[in-house]
């Protein structure tokens, strides 16, 4: 019964077509790794490009946790960290220009968008794969 809202019946004798919903959405909170650059490929709209670093931290070892008044203290174990770099592209005209003008290396920002997988040919004529976040929202945060 739940699927009926997603199913379209052409007739009782014809197999039904199930319409499938999907989503490609990403949210990132991090620091800008380089000042943005604006590129324009001939015949296409300009794009603002920059890198964004996100960090993941965890405690290794025996983590004994003690709770204080709204403060959690881990008393044993080492802290490990992993930094992941993301390539951000901004195509939307107003957002592209504001991002290019105001985002700077070290800025803390929140980015919403979608993941795009593509290919390009480098300077040595080698085909490479690239994962890019196509931003449709950039929120500037204070430090």
TrEMBL record:
It is found in: Mitochondrion matrix, Mitochondrion nucleoid. Gene3D superfamilies: Nucleic acid-binding proteins. Coiled coil: none annotated. GO terms for cellular component: mitochondrial nucleoid. Its main location: mitochondrion. SUPFAM superfamilies: Nucleic acid-binding proteins. One of its GO terms (molecular function) is single-stranded DNA binding. PROSITE patterns: SSB (PS50935). Keywords: DNA replication, DNA-binding, Mitochondrion, Mitochondrion nucleoid, Transit peptide. It comes from the Eukaryota. GO terms for biological process: mitochondrial DNA replication. HAMAP family: SSB. PANTHER family: SINGLE-STRANDED DNA-BINDING PROTEIN (PTHR10302), SINGLE-STRANDED DNA-BINDING PROTEIN, MITOCHONDRIAL (PTHR10302:SF0). This is SSBP protein. The gene is Ssbp1.
């Amino acid at each position: 019964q739940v699927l009926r809202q997603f199913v379209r019946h052409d007739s009782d004798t014809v197999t039904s077509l199930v319409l499938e919903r999907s989503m490609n959405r990403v949210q990132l909170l991090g620091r800008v790794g380089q000042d943005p650059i604006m590129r324009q490929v001939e015949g296409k709209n300009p794009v603002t490009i920059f890198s964004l670093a996100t960090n993941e931290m965890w405690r290794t070892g025996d983590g004994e946790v003690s709770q204080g008044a709204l403060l959690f203290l881990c008393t044993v174990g080492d802290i490990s960290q992993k930094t992941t770099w993301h390539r951000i592209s901004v195509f939307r005209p107003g957002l592209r220009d504001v991002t290019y003008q105001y985002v700077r290396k070290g800025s803390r920002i929140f980015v919403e968008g979608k993941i795009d997988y593509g290919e390009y040919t480098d300077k040595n004529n080698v085909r490479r794969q690239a994962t890019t976040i196509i931003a449709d929202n950039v929120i500037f945060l204070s430090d």
